[in-house]
Amino acid sequence: HSPLYNLLYSAWLSLVPSFSAMPSYKLTYFPVRARAEVARQLFYLAGVPFEDVRVPHADWPALKPKTPFGQMPLLEVDGKPLPQSYAINRYLAKEFGFAGKSPFEAAWVDAIADQFKDYNIELRPLFLVLMGFAQGDKDQLLKDVGIPARDKFFGILEKLAKDNGNNGHFVGSSLTWADLLIADHVKTVSIHLPSFLDGFPTVLDTVKKIESTPKLKEWIEKRPDTKF
Amino acid sequence: MPLYKLSYFEERGLGEVSRQLFHLSGTPFWDNRIPFDHWPRIKEYTPFGQVPILCVDGEELPQSFAIARYLANQFGFAGKSAFESAWVDALADQHKDYLNEIKPFLMVANGFAEGDKEKMMNEMAKPSIRKYFTILEKQAKDNGSNGYFVGNSITWIDLVVSDHMGVIETLVPNAFDGFPLVEAVRQKITSEPKLKEWIEKRPET
Predict the structure, then answer these.
(1) A94 and chain B: CB distance < 8 Å anywhere?
(2) Which residues form the GST C-terminal domain (chain A) (predicted)?
(3) ipTM
């Protein structure tokens, strides 16, 4: 839905007494998927309206000092700010039921997410060159950085998916924000490094199953198309 | 009560916050400290090839912050509302980002890598410390200067920052000048009786 649609819908909701208990949500980020996509998906999966604010890069410097950590994404819940993408993801996932079915399961979701974060840090030099944000030897970086990082992390994921019975989730038996995090990354990788993950068939199968979740499929089809 | 085992190296590092949560809550646990030379042999038997690992009635959980958050939730050190918990998480993630920024300096300062320690301290560590501690100082102030970063009781981010300050002050002189409220959090936390007791008796690392 367009931002205007979301705004009008939120306004309508605020007029309906039985719905006025629902907070108003605003998510602010750059016009890409990257660190805000999981949050956007959680809103859509839960059927909860939110203002999907996409800030052009040129407008960011003026906005930056007004944010708690000088960073995006930023979630606002009834005007109260919350920074840091994983804190936002976990908060929304808990509210909407995508954080695992027990405290221990929720902790495993967190563990996978943090391992993914570590992997992304390792991958960063390659990623920056692939996205055109830095100069570098793509093939050398692939060999030195990309492949070792991939093998370590996706080796873990492949085993997790298999041990979980190849049931379409990386932990437990219901959709969690860790599933969404991995699926979105696999999407980005498939755009820039088509055969990079071919050695991890159970992971790819799990991602296919995740992406076939009806509301998610719907969102993926209608969202703005971005390279990452 | 579940049987808890926390496995980590013989140092504070990423395991200390979880040890402190056990001690603060008075919960018994097996504080399993792995000598470095044992690690290569057991690494492949761990879920992520890393420590710390928490074992709860035989079920394993990796990743230091997942462990800390799980224990904090079990023992009541994760904030008093969902939004407060989320702010503890946000600060913890900011802490992690900051640690990643100064990691090259820490590697050199602790003798794990070659480099110009003085240069890295001035060009990398000090600016990163200033940037992150400015956020922490403001957070402590906005929280009412009550000796906690979030809410009005101890949360695990208080523990993470306090322990980290103990690491930095041995490496960077006057690192916390200009951050009195952050220092006040550390003072409050480390004078909490159960924690004070643990700090006094724990292995010196």
Answers:
(1) yes
(2) 102-228
(3) 0.96
